[in-house]
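Hi support team,

I'm opening this ticket because the web form for multi-chain structure prediction keeps timing out on my end. I have pasted the exact lines I submitted so you can reproduce it. The total is 688 residues across four entries, so I didn't expect it to be a heavy job. Is there a limit I'm missing, or should I split the entries? Thanks in advance, R.K.
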Amino acid sequence: MEMDERKMRILQAIIDDYVLTGVPVGSRTISRKYDMGLSSATIRNEMSDLEELGFLDQPHVSAGRIPSAKAYRLYVDTLLQTGKIRDDNEETIRRHFSGRIHQMEDVIDHAAQVLSTLTRYTAVVLSPKGAQPRLQTVQLVPVSSETALVVIVTDMGVIRDSVIRIGNQMDSDTLYAISRTLTGELRGMTLQEACERMPALISRMYGNDEVLRELYGFLNEGQQSNQRAHMAVGGTSNILAYPEYSDVDKARNFLSLMETRDKLADIIRGNNEMSFTVRIGPETGVPEMVDCSIVTATYSGRGGQQGTIGVIGPTRMRYSSVLSILNMMGRQLTDLLGGEDENK
Amino acid sequence: MEMDERKMRILQAIIDDYVLTGVPVGSRTISRKYDMGLSSATIRNEMSDLEELGFLDQPHVSAGRIPSAKAYRLYVDTLLQTGKIRDDNEETIRRHFSGRIHQMEDVIDHAAQVLSTLTRYTAVVLSPKGAQPRLQTVQLVPVSSETALVVIVTDMGVIRDSVIRIGNQMDSDTLYAISRTLTGELRGMTLQEACERMPALISRMYGNDEVLRELYGFLNEGQQSNQRAHMAVGGTSNILAYPEYSDVDKARNFLSLMETRDKLADIIRGNNEMSFTVRIGPETGVPEMVDCSIVTATYSGRGGQQGTIGVIGPTRMRYSSVLSILNMMGRQLTDLLGGEDENK
DNA sequence: TGTTAGCACTCGATGCCTGTGAGTGCTAAC
DNA sequence: GTTAGCACTCACAGGCATCGAGTGCTAACA
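Hello R.K., no limit was hit. The queue was backed up. Here is the completed structure from your submission:
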């Protein structure tokens, strides 16, 4: 038995109806609501075929059919191939970013908000993953008589700053002098290289031991924390609006997964760097998400590194709409966060 | 009719049992499980009195009684008066903060995590609210040939930094010179005062118009964003574990409230600055929280400003335990974030 | 040969009834 | 003032009949 064009149309109708209602759809519904010019009996035969082909599931014998993961897969694949990703939300999204937000973390938080509002699903936004940023400037700023702020600028932006303790009291000028020397020594190195270089510097620039030692610790920390990117999650409670999660236990599992940020980041990031990824139900590889789908897209941050945005919803997701929104949002984020390097 | 010591003991037993089980408690249960030396019939009479006094509610005639908000109020008040807030979690909490975390936002995020894990309720941690910080240092750090990072240090710590555009190309030394001048001019001022001073400076230090103008904008922004503090929420899904929220609609309302950060911050912060606040059910003033209680405590940040930590759970909360944990956590945060100024 | 009408059958959902048991309130006796 | 006893209430669970949406199959039709 083969898939033909009519089967395809019927499957499409079933998916449409099921995505809309969330209720198993019967042959009668299809023949009436979507006028195919076919009787329910014929549809029934076709549905039976589709089930045998693995595109439909039947919760129990006297219920209608629901699309299987395989059906969604087929649907999404044709969607992606024919490239029917609309562009019409562009203005909507742009409007949401009208204010003056430049701070990367604010943009990301905001994006997650907007994304979840527009899709009505759960949205996750991951900042670009710092590959191997190279040091550009190291600067110490006095905070109190005993502490100073370290600011490290790399070619990919600013590393999160931190307050370190300085031993003997130093004025602003002394700190600046040290900063200049350090910048001279370390510029162009990756964080890791800088870490390796530090011991040598400590022995050479004696007299400033404490500062340098603290700095060393900071670099080490920064090297690690640099790997775990910033992440924002929006609309976690949206999932509760769908009957798939009216079971409280399921909902709790899902929500607590949303709270374990590390795990969630791994899931969203996935392992491939394609511009769009759609993982349906079991394809997610996450037990808590067997009846969820994850749709992700990438955007370019500064220096062309890839950031990820994703939407998590029930398998019966409005894929087409979600894809188009993700597409637009990705462009918007590339505009706001990356751009510079590519446009010039 | 008056409250006497026996009524008090019975009420206590009822609260204990209800907090434990979440099921309306009957007279028989009390007379058996908590040996009062009284028959169920006597308890029954007393319970009837307690209901008339407004301390007990009866879901329906043949069910047991549940404590009213008034009962919890009484319970919590005596708890607070007799000061029976235990100290035994101290070590547990301290252990959770063993790592090297100094960055304020990390501490806050982490605290919310720990707090929700220990209490099994939802935890909210608010950073100290910036009263009127005074400028200490202004420093510009080169990022690219066209942009620089502004770092502003106040007596209460570092203001979030931001990248601004600089007009004509400037090297590190020029930027440092400008920084020195600015620091000299603005030191000791509040953000607002600094903003007011800027126009005068712009006209005086001509040649650096663009930098100063950008800086002006940044100060203005900072002045506003300084008001809204950092907030971390942990364990939002914990609430789903309690039968009070097995209704999905209720749960969704609650969770979406947890997501609207501004509102949540207002609720947690409340309007008083007491070291402990307990708001029970309707006392919260939030419709979504009629069967929740909010327990908050304050801690001191740098410069003695008040930060707030809070726990949100069902009205039948383990108040005693929560209070003791909040107490310990408050001290810990004061240690980590404030301290300095007070210990010296 | 594909399509359709008809029909028996399945099975979850709904609603009704009933029994059960936890719990109460009241009364009378101690 | 306390307790034993008893009638009463009411949520809840189990059993049962009913309903209806939907299927699969067969036979007739174009």
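A quick check on our side: The mean pLDDT of chain A is 85. Let us know if the file doesn't open in your viewer.
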